[in-house]
Design a protein that fits this description.
The structure is a homodimer. Chain A is of the alpha/beta class. Chain A is about 40% helix and about 15% strand. Chain B binds a DNA duplex through helix 2 and helix 4.
Chain lengths: ~350, ~350
DNA sequence: TATCGATGATTAAACGATTAATCAGGCGAT
DNA sequence: ATCGCCTGATTAATCGTTTAATCATCGATA
């Protein structure tokens, strides 16, 4: 909306100079004497001058707006991401336009197109389950996972998995059930890979995928964790706090106390994780840092780009593409009960009696 | 970013007409013969013409962008709201710029100012705990609760409370603990008001506020619900699913089975509500409808407004300001256990032995 | 003294769309 | 035959900013 605020010409008129001089003084580009420049800045500030983005956009081809594309906005991580991106972008002078794709791939394409039509200078994309993003014709920062080709910046999900696993291992767990949602997700696979890499030596590990299970038994179906406990599993390492919550309540409901009889861990430190009972042990990513790096790389690419060509659409790269995760130990994890499947307390070779880490069929 | 796409003049040149005619044909405003208009539309479509928002904005003072302001983006409801607003806005041809206030009031003001500086045509505000929003100088749609002055559109939180209470009442609950976060929230007060209005007759009701309790005992402290059960409470009506989740896990942890020994209900149907065990009974608001109404009212106000003046900043009003909530009955609510505090099964006057609905000190 | 260069400012064009004002015909009515 | 009106199109101005090109002035150099 056209604020009634003063325009460039208004300042120029006030000081009896030309509009071009004002523009030069404010941007520091042309040749303006130091004293006049100072005077211009002063009156601009005094009058509360705010440049018209529309005018500038028309002239420069830069809108100072970036688009934020998320696989599905309903993802509980969305608030964290959006907040961090918005903060980073606005400190860099950019606005953030959101685009929702409701999980749908074609909708996502449409959403991206709408952003392009709005002349965004660049976009931050969190791709859905490792789908490659097509060349969109403007600089793109991709936040996925370091092992994804084209990734710009991401948390070190593998490392996060390792931390979780080491925590569980140190507590004494030797039979761990990993709970994931969908094997197509690069993020989940990295987390799981990290967990397995630590537990491979001397622990029995199995993976349960929720989505395939739900396709058979319906949404929100029980995961059958009580049976798993009966089979000797003492820890449930979930790939997201959402699944951890699901596991926790299912176990509690079955009368299995957490963490005394079974440990539960999650990922992402979602909003409820500190306030449920027991509070969830989880691995958190430093979204603020990730967003800062992504936006910084994006802004750099935008700056280098010639506004005329619409050719370059390859994901931009950041110097520091891998941000470590942070283990948050709370009450949902503890040592396993002493009874089951602990062949002997005879220190060393007791471990070898447990099956080596194995992979799911 | 300046797409390399064809401009208005390009189409004009292709057909050998003037740019003005093309503009008129495409907008349907000036006087253009039907056949020429058709031909223009055809080539525009063929060439994939997309108007430059910057050019249009500069001329018309309309950016076709609205701002979305939320009290704190970390709110678990945010995804729902953002998704619904984005859908409604984009179908109306508007982009959505997000502004986060991190819960802080001064930050919120800054965020709003940034939106104004970006020339948004209007904004949708979900105010923080009933803070009145100041005159911002552009049309504003407020989503809060019908009883808030200046509210544009909202779910019927009071009615939602009534539905929850009637459900609980029909199940036979006579001692209900309401769990809220902060007494300053209009939304929460309406929900609680609705609950109490139904339960006032013949049930004992008490309210527990989390935030004051946490100020004393620290974040994530136990709510002491086991004691409440011992006192005879059979149902916990929470003002949000987040609190319901907290209550549920605390009860489960204390060995109190839900719903056999105590019922738990929430609000908002948040992401985890269907997948925890037992799945949460809750009241859902129709965000899609609310967003549609809010955006419609906003767009109408934007259309009527003279782009030149920046005076009107009062919240716009919608025709249909109150959208009913929908009760979602799942497994977390059931009839209370038969034993405790049921003075007698002697039908009628048994009720009067229970204290009338009372208010918290 | 005439000229060159640097300095500090101004002019004017451009970005892409909208829209008020204008203009050229054609047709009916006086 | 002339005037006025309606239709369908064009002209030209405008929104606010940026920036290349131009210009004036002054001091220093040849």
């Amino acid at each position: 909306m056209a604020r009634s605020g003063p325009k460039l010409t208004r300042i120029a008129r006030t000081l009896g100079v030309s509009a071009a001089t004002v523009s030069n003084a404010l941007s520091g580009k042309g040749r303006v004497s130091a004293e006049l420049a100072e005077k211009i800045r002063a009156t601009a500030a005094e009058l509360g001058y705010v440049p018209s983005l529309a005018g500038r956009a028309l002239r420069t081809g830069r809108t100072a707006v970036i688009g934020l594309v998320l696989p599905d906005i309903a993802n509980p991580l969305f608030p964290q991401i959006a907040q961090a991106i918005e903060l980073a972008a606005s400190s860099a002078g950019y606005g953030v336009l959101i685009a929702d794709s409701r999980g749908d791939v074609t909708t996502q394409t449409k959403a991206i197109e709408r952003l392009i039509d709005r002349d965004v200078d660049g976009m931050v994309i969190v791709p859905r389950r490792g789908t490659r993003i097509a060349d969109v014709g403007c600089p793109v920062a991709v936040i996925d996972t370091p092992s994804t080709p084209g990734n710009t910046v991401a948390a070190d999900h593998w490392g996060g998995g390792r931390q979780i696993a080491e925590h569980l291992k140190a507590l004494g767990h030797r039979r761990v059930l990993i709970i994931g949602n969908n094997p197509a997700s690069n993020v989940q696979n990295d987390r799981i890979g990290g967990i397995r890499s630590v537990l491979a030596d001397g622990a029995f590990v199995e993976t349960l995928w929720i989505e395939p299970l739900e396709r058979e038994q319906g949404k929100g179906c029980p995961l059958g964790l009580a049976e798993k406990v009966a089979e000797g599993f003492t820890a449930f390492a979930c790939v997201s706090d959402l699944h951890a919550l699901r596991a926790l309540t299912e176990l509690q409901r079955a009368g299995i106390n957490v963490p005394e009889k079974a440990s539960v861990t999650g990922f992402d430190d979602l909003i409820w994780s500190p306030v449920v009972t027991p509070a969830l042990t989880t691995a958190r990513m430093d979204m603020t840092r990730i967003a800062a790096i992504a936006v910084e790389a994006l802004v750099k690419a935008i700056g280098e780009r010639d506004p005329a060509d619409a050719a370059i659409g390859a994901p931009v790269t950041a110097d520091d593409a891998e941000v470590p995760m942070q283990l948050v130990v709370r009450q949902s994890s503890a040592a396993p009960p002493r009874i089951q499947f602990q062949p002997a307390q005879t220190t060393a070779n007791a471990r070898t009696s447990a099956p080596e880490g194995e992979h799911q069929p």
